[in-house]
Automatic annotation (TrEMBL):
Domain of life: Bacteria
Broad class of where this protein is predominantly found: cytoplasm
Family under the similarity heading: Belongs to the protoporphyrinogen/coproporphyrinogen oxidase family. Coproporphyrinogen III oxidase subfamily.
Co-factor(s): FAD
Domain Amine oxidase: 14-461
Short name of one Pfam family: Amino_oxidase
UniProt entry keywords in alphabetical sequence: Cytoplasm, FAD, Flavoprotein, Heme biosynthesis, Oxidoreductase
Name of the protein in its database record: Coproporphyrinogen III oxidase
The EC number(s) this enzyme carries: 1.3.3.15
Role description: Involved in coproporphyrin-dependent heme b biosynthesis. Catalyzes the oxidation of coproporphyrinogen III to coproporphyrin III.
Subcellular location: Cytoplasm
Pathway involvement of the protein, from the record: Porphyrin-containing compound metabolism; protoheme biosynthesis
Signal peptide interval: none
Length: 469
């Protein structure tokens, strides 16, 4: 083994960059780290842009402040490591609403991703069926069981709770449907509680009690200056050589590591490294693993993804309610599935000229045909639907932006975590110097992706025989 390690990180999203930072911090001094990003920009779904002379997020807008166990999230820990903690800001308007029956109703408190911990509090938007949530004398789930969120909640609380609360909450995060999404992957705290509690109400309360939150403690944060600051700081702190517009086309094991084929097929570059962190979505990862670890490729290659578009409008002095935004159940028949009143929600973005930035998310899994519309059509539809939901004609936008994210959001069906675990065990047994990281395996959200990348880096350090620094 060479005295100076060479590690390739394939994928320049936040998972890959977090892996690179952890390698720099923990691998032996002098380790050569190279990040290969097939596009021209780092950060993946973290992208800060500009509209009407002000900053706006064209991708993810915030991160969770705490992890499920109650400590600070991996995103916050990384931000502290990068010296950006002083830039963390929190929403100044926290109340959001649901668009139900043609009107906006505040999202009830006391829920866990829409699943009620108090049935009386959700009566304003849905009618639960409490008699169905009976104690059958055993836990809701077996020790290894996984079910769809919709299947569990429908059986216990009825259709309205799923359709009007849980589905829009999950749809806002995953662009998927509660009836398809894995409980263990999307709501791990509730899944753990369901393996000991006999009722869903009890499971929700147990999950909430396991990670109590102090009154007024912020749930979300973002960075003053935009989340691209996190991307840039991570790339710098990693000390990695960053290769943009560098597609890794093939991976081949060698006697002592890996050979990468990088760049266009007409002029390929061959690079030899000791280890690889594969921090790309599941399907391109599966293509690279075909012929190298076929069982692993098959195990991860079946993961499906949803596409979305984010439409941001700059509106002159619109009449907006005192809300951070709203979610839209699929039963309402609207193209919009969620909207954020950016300059209301984030006080540091408010403008003295009264211009408001409003962003809408469109696109649900299985309904991608709606995203084939031209940008102008999407923007006009969003403007019309916003006016209808708010029950007031909004002023014409002075500027707009449509950001399309094709195949952006993984759709985790029941059993996802087991499939990923099996793939990783198989990969570790045959190719321990190749690890997987990213949302396709461990879940969406900045903290989860950061933790995934850091874990992959630690595995590489172990595999190369180093105890780390």
């Amino acid at each position: 083994m060479p005295t100076r390690w060479r590690v390739a990180v394939v994928g320049g999203g936040i998972a890959g960059l977090a892996a690179a930072v952890r390698l720099r911090d923990r691998a032996p001094s002098g380790t050569e780290i190279t990040v290969y990003e097939r596009s021209g920009a780092l950060g993946g779904k973290l992208r800060t842009g500009e509209l009407a002379g002000g900053p706006v997020e064209f991708g993810a807008e915030s991160f969770l402040m705490r992890d499920p166990a109650g400590g600070e999230s991996a995103a916050v820990a990384l931000i502290r490591r990068l010296g950006l903690a002083g830039r963390i800001v929190h929403p100044t308007v926290g109340q959001a609403a649901l668009a139900v029956d043609g009107e906006l109703r505040p999202i009830p408190g006391g829920t866990l991703v829409g699943v009620p911990g108090d049935l009386d509090r959700v009566a304003t938007v849905a009618r639960p069926t409490p008699e169905a949530d009976h104690d059958g004398g055993r836990p809701l789930l077996g020790s290894t069981d996984d079910v769809s969120v919709g299947a569990l909640v429908r059986a216990r609380f009825g259709d309205e709770v799923v359709d009007r609360l849980v589905d829009p909450m999950l749809g806002g995060v995953y662009a998927g449907r509660a009836d398809d999404l894995s409980l263990a992957t999307t709501m791990p705290a509730l899944a753990r509680a369901a393996r000991t509690e006999h009722t869903l109400l009890g499971a929700v309360r147990a999950a909430q009690a396991a990670a109590p939150r102090a009154p007024g403690e912020p749930v979300f944060g973002t960075l003053d200056g935009g989340l691209s600051c996190l991307v840039e700081a991570a790339a710098t702190a990693s000390g990695a050589s960053v290769r943009r517009n560098a597609t890794v086309r093939e991976l081949t094991p060698t006697g002592s590591g890996w050979r990468l084929i990088v760049g266009p097929t007409r002029d390929p570059e061959h690079v030899d490294v000791d280890a690889v962190v594969l921090a790309v979505p599941a399907r391109p990862a599966a293509r690279l693993l075909t012929g190298v670890a076929d069982a692993v490729a098959a195990g991860i290659g079946g993961l499906d993804y949803a596409s979305v578009a984010l439409v941001t409008l700059a509106l002159p002095e619109p009449a907006l309610p005192q809300l951070s935004g709203f979610l839209v159940p699929g039963t309402e028949g609207l193209l919009i599935k969620a909207s954020t009143f950016f300059t209301s929600k984030w006080g540091h973005l408010r403008r003295p000229d009264g211009l408001a930035l409003v962003r809408a998310s469109v696109g649900r899994y299985g309904d991608e045909a709606q995203l084939q519309r031209p940008d102008e059509d999407l923007a006009a539809t969003v403007h019309r639907e916003l006016s209808a939901v708010l029950d007031t004609p909004l002023p014409a936008p002075v500027a707009g932006h449509v950001q399309r994210w094709g195949g952006a959001l993984p759709q985790y069906t029941p059993g996802h975590l087991d499939r990923v675990a099996e793939a990783r065990v198989a990969l570790r047994s045959t190719h321990p110097t190749l690890t997987l990281a990213g949302a396709g395996y461990d879940g969406v959200g900045i903290p989860v992706c950061v933790r995934s990348g850091e874990t992959a880096a630690e595995e590489i350090i172990t595999a190369l025989g180093g105890s780390g620094r």
